[in-house]
From TrEMBL, chain A:
Taxonomic lineage from the root: Bacteria, Pseudomonadati, Pseudomonadota, Gammaproteobacteria, Oceanospirillales
Alphabetical list of Pfam families matching this protein: BPD_transp_1, BPD_transp_1_N
Protein name per Swiss-Prot or TrEMBL: Oligopeptide ABC transporter permease OppB
ABC transmembrane type-1 domain segment(s): 94-297
GO annotation, biological process: transmembrane transport
Gene: oppB
Record-linked PROSITE patterns: ABC_TM1
Subcellular location(s) of the protein: Cell membrane
Cellular-component GO terms for this entry: plasma membrane
Keyword Cell membrane: yes
Keywords: Cell membrane, Membrane, Transmembrane, Transmembrane helix, Transport
Family: Belongs to the binding-protein-dependent transport system permease family.
UniProt-listed CDD domains: TM_PBP2 (cd06261)
From TrEMBL, chain B:
Signal peptide from the UniProt entry: 1-22
Residue ranges constituting the Solute-binding protein family domain according to the UniProt record: 78-459
Phylogenetic placement of the source organism: Bacteria, Pseudomonadati, Pseudomonadota, Gammaproteobacteria, Oceanospirillales
Similarity comment: family membership: Belongs to the bacterial solute-binding protein 5 family.
Protein name (database record): ABC transporter substrate-binding protein
Gene Ontology MF: a single term: peptide transmembrane transporter activity
Keyword match ATP-binding: no
GO biological process, one term: peptide transport
Subcellular location: Cell envelope
Primary localization class, coarse: other
Keyword Acyltransferase: no
Pfam families reported in the protein's UniProt record: SBP_bac_5
Cellular component GO terms held in the UniProt record: ATP-binding cassette (ABC) transporter complex; outer membrane-bounded periplasmic space
InterPro entries: Peptide/Ni-bd (IPR030678), SBP_5 (IPR039424), SBP_5_dom (IPR000914)
Length: 306, 536
């Protein structure tokens, strides 16, 4: 197991390097620059700015400057938020998204798996249909519809919750972002759980368990749930990364100050170092959680051994 | 909305003193116990360093944190700030400002002439790399251009501290609107000690010192910025609001929700789609004021057939501006027939002839002109209309394209591009006709008209008329440049139709009825220290 983990870490390095290189050159090949704006700057003014950020040098030099900084853990200055470095911005915004994400993940997991199991056990009954109908609502109701809808219901019609802000993560500020964030994941998890659970319930070892006369709850919780969770877990790895790195919709509508909007705005503003920063963050997390999923697989599935 | 001309007063080389600036609460107004104001802040500012700020969200916050020599009131007139008064020499090239001695930074240090020297100098210093360095070049402050170009030392800039409270600026040529420009953040004082100690970190909440009515308590990027009263501010006694919070919200729809839920007292903007409904539901909270800016279509004059004035005129005439402002934008904009908006201070653009015709007459003229230029049903004109991706621009483009189609039989392909790509495309003249807009930097007609001079960096349509260039160059030193401006308008629009003006911008905001003292000028300079919260 230890060699496996070590191997995964070593493999991650070239993967990240490729990711960084490709993203860097792709980003720099986009038309426009961080400093192009409605007003065309006088050439001498632009020259001074470009010199300050090394933008007057060949892209390859800029790449090595960037790598040099990166090796020292420096993600560079932001081209958009000029008073901040990318390290500072990520340190400020990532914990916000991670907190919303963790709660959303827990909510999605508990409700999603619960709905999926219930629907599977009552397959093709009205319980199945209604649970899955509700779960599917989460898929057809995208969060850019759900977020303003929540605000309308919880903040404007009824003044129960603050319509936006973060306030250090006080719970009233957390509720709506978690609802908006978790709904689509609930639906996905419920669907995957249901499918996998149905399949498991029809497998031979469950039939054996039933034939042995084991009580139903024992069959479900001790025997069926574990193998049924495998497809859910492989979905959860990347989903977890997605959920903790926030969403632009949640950040824009609830003004939480999370990291989600940096993905879109970084690209639109040509904030090169921001795009690189979030790419590296997501890349690293994805590799990490895929490894975690593999380890979990080994723990859950007796057929897999590393 | 005409403003009286200040330039004459400025040029009279006299001492100007006026009432001080602060909240003017009418007698009998009962103030609320809690004087905390929450303002919509637009997008998160790129920086709070006054010499580096380039966007309006940054300016809005800088006006609360810092104060320059002069401020502008609700009508765009000068009101003393750190300067009590000023004198100018006979040919208006040497300005001497007398600073008030009670102006202080938020750490209690006095604001001196040296702070202004430092502020002006660092704006042009190449090491600062300020995107607004050109703002010091515009009034021709001695050596500004050379310093920016790296040909002179920053210390040679034409600014001097004669003593702690006397600040002098020398200009290479008289610029009538120079004093007004001092209300802009680029010309604000800068706290040298703090900046040198903290470097680029000096604007962080834990380090920043400011000389305005407020000081910063908290800055959480994309969540909020909180300012509280600066007790050292010279006019703190007359300030009413104790705390102001700016919520950075880019989406007007998201902002509206937070206003409706009562989390915000004064919005940054409002979504156009909701304008009519809001006017119906809460008319007293919808405040529309004219803004110093024009929305227009730009012709690529380097490319046939847009190098033909007949084609440009035909297309411009065929735009029914009343339909656009009434039914397409529908948020209180005024149709534009001149390039300079009517609200500009000190200049009343003469109405061009085509503005006096009926739309039917304009359409007939347009048809005749296009035919003359060689386009008809068998040889129809067809082109791309470029705009940056945005719902409002799209609606206008669809409306104008259908007007062109109906009146002139022209076929138009709409082309939208993401912002930065659109800017590049325009800059390299890879367009036929493009949407454009311009908001003035200072309240004087040249802020708009300079845009169409042949060497201007934003003249993307590459309009080029030597006589126009000459008129604007001459206007810079004239006591009353209105005549030149009118001639310039007549040449660029009436004669050459370099661009097709469409409408004059407005500022639209939602303001809670209990917010007093809100009076934006055409440049949208509003100061929290002028406002107060009425008991409600």
């Amino acid at each position: 197991m230890l060699t496996f983990i070590l191997k995964r870490i070593l493999e991650a390095i070239p993967t990240l390097l490729v990711l960084i290189t490709v993203s860097f050159f792709l980003m720099h090949s986009a038309p426009g620059s961080p400093f192009s704006g409605e007003r065309t700057l006088p050439p001498e003014v632009l020259a001074n700015i470009n010199a300050k950020y090394h933008l007057d040098e060949p892209v390859i030099n800029q790449f090595f400057y960037y790598l040099g900084g990166l090796l020292q853990g420096d993600l560079g200055p932001s081209f958009r938020y000029k008073d901040f470095t990318i390290n500072e911005l990520i340190a400020q915004s990532f914990p916000v998204s991670a907190e919303i994400g963790l709660w959303s993940f827990l909510v999605a997991l508990v409700i999603g798996v619960g709905c999926g199991v219930i629907a599977a056990l009552r397959q093709n009954s009205w319980v199945d249909y209604s649970v899955m109908a509700v779960a599917n609502l989460g898929i057809v109701l995208p969060n850019f519809v759900l977020a303003p809808l929540c605000i309308l219901v919880f903040s404007i019609y009824n003044q129960w919750l603050p319509p936006g802000g973060w306030n250090g993560g006080a719970w009233p500020y957390l509720v709506m972002p978690v609802i908006a964030m978790s709904t689509s994941y609930i639906a996905q998890i419920a669907r995957i759980t249901r499918g996998s659970m149905i399949e498991t319930m029809h497998s031979n070892f469950i039939r054996t368990a039933k034939a042995k006369g084991l009580p139903k709850h024992r069959i479900i919780f001790k025997h069926a749930l574990r193998p049924a969770m495998l497809p859910v877990i492989s979905y959860l790895g990347p989903a977890f990364v997605g959920i903790i790195t926030g969403s632009v919709i949640v950040d824009v509508y609830f003004g939480t100050g999370g990291i989600g909007q940096h993905f879109i705005n970084g690209a639109l503003n040509r904030d090169y170092s921001m795009v690189m920063g979030v790419t590296i963050l997501v890349g690293t997390l994805t590799i990490l959680f895929n490894a975690v999923v593999d380890v979990l697989y080994a723990l859950i599935d007796p057929k897999i051994r590393y | 909305m005409k403003k009286t001309l200040l330039a004459s007063a400025i040029l009279a080389s006299t001492l100007i003193t006026a009432p001080s600036y602060a909240a003017n609460v009418p007698a009998g107004t009962e103030l609320a116990d809690v004087q905390d104001l929450v303002r919509g802040g637009g997008s998160e500012p790129a920086t709070l360093d006054p010499q580096k700020i380039e966007g309006t969200p940054g300016s809005a916050r800088a006006r609360d944190l810092f104060e320059g020599l002069y401020n502008l009131d609700g009508e765009g007139n000068l009101v003393p700030g750190v300067a009590k008064s000023y004198t100018a020499n006979e040919d208006n090239t040497l300005y001497t400002f007398t600073l008030r001695q009670d102006a202080k930074w938020s750490n209690g240090d006095p604001v001196t002439a040296h702070d202004f020297v430092y502020g002006f100098t660092r704006a042009v210093d190449p090491a600062t790399a300020s995107p607004y360095a050109w703002f010091i070049e515009i009034p021709s402050i001695t050596n500004a251009s050379k310093i920016i170009n790296g040909e002179a030392e920053p210390s040679t800039l034409g600014v001097k501290a004669l003593d702690d409270y006397t600040f002098q600026v020398s200009l290479d040529r008289p610029v009538p609107y120079f004093v007004k420009m001092t209300a802009h953040q680029t010309m604000f004082p800068a706290p040298k000690k703090t900046i040198e100690k903290w470097g680029s970190n000096w604007t962080k909440a834990e380090h920043i010192v400011s000389n305005g009515a407020y000081k910063m308590d908290e800055w959480i990027v994309n969540e909020k910025m909180v300012f509280s009263r600066n007790s050292h501010y010279w006019n703190d006694d007359k300030t009413v609001i104790n705390q102001v919070t700016f919520l950075p919200i880019e989406s007007p729809n998201a902002e509206l929700k937070r206003f409706q839920a009562g989390q915000m007292d004064l919005s940054y903007e409002l979504p156009n789609d909701h304008f009519k409904q809001l006017q119906r539901d809460i008319p007293e909270q919808v405040v529309v004021t004219p803004m110093l800016g024009t929305y227009y279509y730009q012709f690529n004059t380097t490319k046939a057939p847009y190098d033909d004035v007949r084609v440009r005129k035909a297309l411009s005439y065929a735009i029914d501006r009343n339909v656009i402002t009434k039914f397409v934008t529908g948020t209180g904009e005024l149709p534009a027939y001149s390039f300079t908006p009517e609200v500009v201070n000190g200049f009343n653009p003469a109405t061009p002839e085509y503005a006096t015709w009926t739309q039917k007459e304009r359409n007939e003229k347009a048809q005749a002109l296009l035919e003359e230029a060689g386009f008809d049903k068998r040889n129809p004109l067809s082109f791309n209309l470029l705009y940056n991706t945005n719902e409002n621009h799209k609606k206008i483009a669809i409306a104008v394209a259908s007007m062109w189609k109906k009146t002139l039989g022209v076929s138009v392909t709409l082309e939208n591009q993401e912002w930065k790509t659109y800017l590049e495309t325009k800059k390299h003249q890879q367009f036929d006709i493009a949407r454009a807009g311009w908001i003035g930097d200072y309240n004087e007609a040249s802020t708009m008209l300079d845009l169409l001079t042949s060497t201007h960096g934003n003249n993307d349509g590459k309009y080029n008329n030597a006589e126009y260039d000459r008129l604007l160059a001459d206007a810079k030193t004239l006591q009353n440049p209105s005549e030149n401006y009118n001639q310039a308008e007549a040449i660029a629009i009436e004669q050459d139709m370099a661009v097709a003006p469409i409408y004059q911008y407005t500022t639209k905001r939602l303001v809670k009825p209990y917010v007093g003292g809100y009076s934006p000028n055409p440049e949208d300079s509003i100061y929290t220290r002028d406002m107060y919260i009425i008991k409600h």
